Request: fold
Amino acid sequence: SSNGNVVYYLTDSEVKLIVKYLSDKGVIAPPCNLGDTVYIIPKYGGKPYCGIIEDTVQMIGYTTRGFHIKARKNHDHNKTYMIGKDAYLDKELAKEALEEMMNAKK
Reply:
């Protein structure tokens, strides 16, 4: 049964063409959404000090250095975390990064 909606499926080449067009026009898609879970490694003086904190993305920003987020539960409301540097979207990646940071401290 039809409800009057037309469904059109894009081919892989059409999707690639659209993505290239948007990219060429400067459209930037954030790696996460507001409300997503994020795993933060808080640092003091550039060194991790309290393990990994699970939090929720409250704000997403973009600078020439990359994507930054603010987290909901973090009490330092002016602090932003850089995705891939001290905030991770995957807990296992955060664990690996923390381990590397701890080994670098030694």
Q: What stands out?
A: The CA atoms of residues 32 and 89 lie 8 Å apart.
